[in-house]
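Lecture notes, part 5. Sequence design as translation. It can be helpful to think of inverse folding as translation between two languages: the language of shapes and the language of residues. The source text, in structure tokens, appears below.
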């Protein structure tokens, strides 16, 4: 695997750390800027809103910018957003800074996924993309707990400073290791938007919103489930969340090879097993050992979905895959918001702390139905959709003299 993939993984690590560390520092942030904890929770929404808006907008604005230069610009914006978060003097400016930090999130992942897929041979494209996503899952094991601990010991602002430093390291690594990948004469916002009108792209995004919503319906309420039903202490929940991250990392590692071999079957299996895991957790949540095993399994199946959805969107967007790849991360954040909302409705209705598991399972099954619908719409092409990403996206560069596909 090229060193460029390591640089992309560092970017993903920084993104994952800044996205989730805020959740663990809400009491410190609330106390530091003089607001309530629920009001401070709006900072999480501000970041998610930035992701939803920034993914299509920044990708469209940069549609003619060479991929490496666009990655550097987006990484610079990521650093600026986190520095602004660290020094924001009041809630209003901190809200704006978190929105700014979220803007490049989806575009970085979208452009990064396209770049990663072109760094290797076509039959290893999904593995390359999953290696970038690996940085996001490792952030849940190392970055988020470390950032939370740093913020609790040295003040919440130090966590954002640390993330900005990670962003600078990623920026240097991108500049050093990512090769130039020119954009062809067809590149442009009209070209990208036209590709987004493909029905398969719409179904793929809907699959991400609904199916992954099942994952977030449970993840959002995992801590109160553990403390109220499993009997795990507040001080131990961080370790359990890290276990969730271990499961996600394992799922990401197996997702790449499986997706390269059989994209749609991997997606179908991931959604079906996620639904089964969530139903199982509804019953095992009362037993510590069984609950921990189920949590790791749910994390793995949630991560297993990510790579095939990303590759599917890139394939179906034909020779303009960047906006589709970026919009996938807008879809994931919509899944985050929607899943948490539906899970909360179940709890508020008096169905119990375990009820989000059944809500999540229903969403995963609905996502599986959407995925099957997309499969039925396909007319049975012979080549793998993972390879189709490389074949179709190469059309962007046919008018250019060079195209980097080094696998060294």
């Amino acid at each position: 695997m090229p060193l460029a993939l390591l640089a992309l993984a560092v970017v993903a690590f920084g993104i994952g750390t800044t996205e989730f560390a805020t959740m663990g520092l809400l009491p410190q942030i609330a106390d530091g800027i003089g607001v309530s904890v629920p009001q401070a929770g709006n900072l999480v929404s501000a970041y998610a809103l930035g992701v939803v808006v920034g993914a299509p907008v920044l990708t469209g604005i940069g549609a003619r910018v060479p991929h490496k230069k666009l990655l550097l610009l987006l990484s610079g914006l990521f650093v600026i957003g986190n520095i602004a978060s660290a020094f924001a003097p009041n809630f209003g400016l901190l809200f704006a800074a978190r929105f700014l930090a979220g803007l490049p999130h989806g575009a970085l992942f979208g452009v990064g996924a396209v770049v990663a897929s072109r760094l290797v041979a076509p039959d290893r494209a999904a593995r390359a993309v999953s290696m970038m996503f690996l940085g996001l899952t490792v952030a849940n094991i190392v970055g988020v707990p470390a950032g939370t601990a740093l913020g609790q010991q040295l003040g919440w602002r130090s966590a954002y400073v640390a993330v900005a430093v990670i962003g600078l390291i990623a920026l240097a690594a991108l500049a050093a290791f990512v090769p130039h990948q020119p954009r062809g004469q067809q590149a442009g916002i009209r070209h990208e938007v036209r590709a987004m009108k493909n029905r398969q792209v719409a179904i793929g995004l809907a699959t991400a919103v609904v199916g992954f919503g099942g994952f977030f319906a449970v993840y959002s309420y995992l801590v109160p489930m553990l403390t109220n039903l499993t009997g795990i202490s507040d001080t131990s929940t961080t370790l359990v969340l890290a276990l969730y991250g271990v499961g996600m990392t394992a799922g990401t590692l197996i997702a790449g090879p499986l997706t390269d071999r059989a994209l749609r079957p991997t997606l179908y299996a991931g959604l079906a097993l996620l639904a089964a895991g969530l139903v199982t957790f509804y019953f095992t949540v009362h037993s510590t050992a069984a609950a921990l095993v189920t949590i790791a399994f749910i994390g793995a199946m949630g991560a297993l979905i990510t790579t095939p959805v990303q590759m599917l969107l890139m394939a179906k967007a034909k020779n303009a895959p960047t906006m589709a790849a970026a919009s996938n991360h807008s879809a994931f954040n919509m899944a985050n918001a929607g899943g948490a909302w539906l899970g909360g409705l179940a709890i508020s209705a008096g169905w119990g702390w375990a009820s989000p598991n059944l809500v999540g399972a229903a969403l995963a099954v609905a996502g599986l139905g959407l995925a099957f619908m997309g499969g039925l719409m396909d007319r049975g092409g012979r080549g793998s959709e993972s390879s189709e990403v490389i074949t179709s996206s190469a059309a962007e560069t046919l008018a250019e003299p060079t195209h980097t596909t080094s696998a060294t």
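The translated text above is only one of many valid answers, since several sequences can fold into similar shapes. The domain at 3-397 is CATH 1.20.1250.20 (Growth Hormone; Chain: A;).
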